[in-house]
Design brief:
This protein is an alpha/beta fold. The protein contains 13 helices and 13 strands. The strands form three sheets. Strands 1-12-6-5-4-2-3 form a seven-stranded mixed sheet, sandwiched between helices. A four-stranded parallel sheet has the order 8-7-9-10, sandwiched between helices. Helix 5 runs parallel beside helix 6. The protein binds beta-D-glucopyranose. The site of beta-D-glucopyranose (BGC) has 13 residues, from loops.
């Protein structure tokens, strides 16, 4: 009886948690669900391990379920964390997990997903390397009625994608742009200021949001001449970094420094979409640049970049708590496996070329030297010793 009640409450909690942790429609219905969920969460908080037990019961009730989790690479810090969080949270909820990393190689990811399909995975969670390259293999999943959750990156041009879970990536870019606007006081200062731009892999749909969100803030200043991009590399295709690789960002940036900033010309700001590319920029600056150190943005709060923030070599980052994303995805998995409905999703924004994919968006958080302790250390994401 107790288990049944907990299971029923969990259903509500699950829907509510989806709404509280992530963005969704703001209807009164969803507010009510959120309130109910908060009540349940409070009860759970005093009830020890019941959440995990009940989730495990939920999964176990209908037999053991195998979930395939496909991550792009182990080379970048965040995907290791995402993979580990997904595996441990799914396992605590009673699922069997097939976790694979694809070395940033599209064909490897396709083969790994094929193996998951033939290896009896009942649901796939995929962070794609290239959003456009999974259509054929996902058609096989669809044929076998295997639902697919696109993790962090939207999978494009496939009608096999059931849900999409990510952070609000437009907001990530917007926060980076607004940080630059504020730091340089662009609304009032005369300028001009020299800026360069570095973004990520062209096959990653998120790039459109990072670049778009930042450029919506900064482009007017470029157009008016207050921000000057001396390299002339402004268009998304010109500022891309294959595979988000630090080395590639560094090589491109070394060339920019030697062509445009080696004669004493100051570089005031670098818009870098994430930490792995910001690290390449920081390396290039350390090797070849003698002017005043520029403002440098980033995203992910990778350890190397938080260290650079503490050493004044990077100005800010964006904290995407991958624990939150994983737990929301586990809730989605539970809902799909147990045939429950998910409410409060964004059903208007994310069109993958075959239609809108119902999505939910976790909140990205601004991080710098002033708040890193609170958001990264106090929350248990890192130990202080990780950053030394
Ligand atoms: C993620 C970013 C990450 C980048 C490189 C993007 O899809 O959203 O958080 O920095 O990939 O791994």
């Amino acid at each position: 009886m107790k288990k049944k009640i907990i299971s029923a409450m969990l259903g509500i909690a699950m829907l509510g948690t989806l709404l509280t942790g992530c963005g969704g429609s703001d209807s009164s219905e969803s507010k009510e669900t959120t309130a109910k969920a908060t009540e349940v969460e409070k009860t759970e908080a005093s009830g020890g391990d019941e959440t995990t037990e009940a989730k495990a019961d939920d999964a176990a009730a209908s037999g053991s379920h195998k979930i395939g989790v496909s991550m792009p690479t182990k080379d970048l810090q965040r995907w290791n964390q995402d993979g580990e969080n997904m595996k441990s949270q799914l396992e605590s909820a009673g699922y069997e997990v097939d976790l694979q990393f694809a070395s940033n190689d599209i064909q490897t990811q396709v083969s790994q997903v094929e193996n998951m399909i033939s290896g009896d995975c009942e649901l796939l969670v995929i962070a794609s390397i290239d959003g456009d390259s999974l259509g054929t293999v996902l058609a096989q999943a669809k044929e076998k009625n295997i639902p697919v959750i696109a993790y962090d990156r939207l999978i494009m041009n496939s009608d096999a994608v059931t849900y999409y879970a990510t952070f609000d990536n437009y907001l990530v870019g917007q926060k980076q742009g607004e940080f630059i606007e504020e730091k340089l006081d662009l609304k009032n200062a005369e300028g001009p200021f020299n800026m360069e731009i570095v973004t990520g892999d062209p096959g990653d749909n998120n790039v459109n949001f990072f670049y778009g969100g930042a450029m919506d803030v900064l482009k007017p200043y470029i157009d008016s001449g207050k921000l000057v991009v001396k390299s002339g590399q402004i268009e998304k295709a010109d500022v891309a970094t294959a595979n988000w690789a630090t080395d590639a960002a560094q090589a491109r940036f070394e060339a920019i420094i030697s062509s445009y900033y080696s004669d004493g010309t100051n570089l005031d700001v670098v818009l870098a979409s994430n930490d792995s590319t910001a690290l390449g920029v920081a390396n290039a600056l350390a090797a070849n640049y003698t002017g005043t150190y520029p403002i440098l943005t980033g995203q992910d709060c990778d350890i190397a970049s938080v260290k650079n923030i503490l050493a004044d070599k990077q100005s800010m980052s964006i904290f995407k708590d991958t624990r939150d994303l994983a737990s929301k995805v586990v809730e989605m998995v539970d809902a799909i496996i147990n045939g429950k409905e998910i409410e409060g999703l964004d059903t208007t924004t994310y069109d993958n070329g075959k239609g809108i994919v119902p999505s939910y968006l976790c909140e990205p958080v601004f991080a710098d030297k002033n708040n890193y302790k609170e958001i990264l250390i106090d929350s248990g994401y890192y130990q202080e010793s990780d950053l030394q």
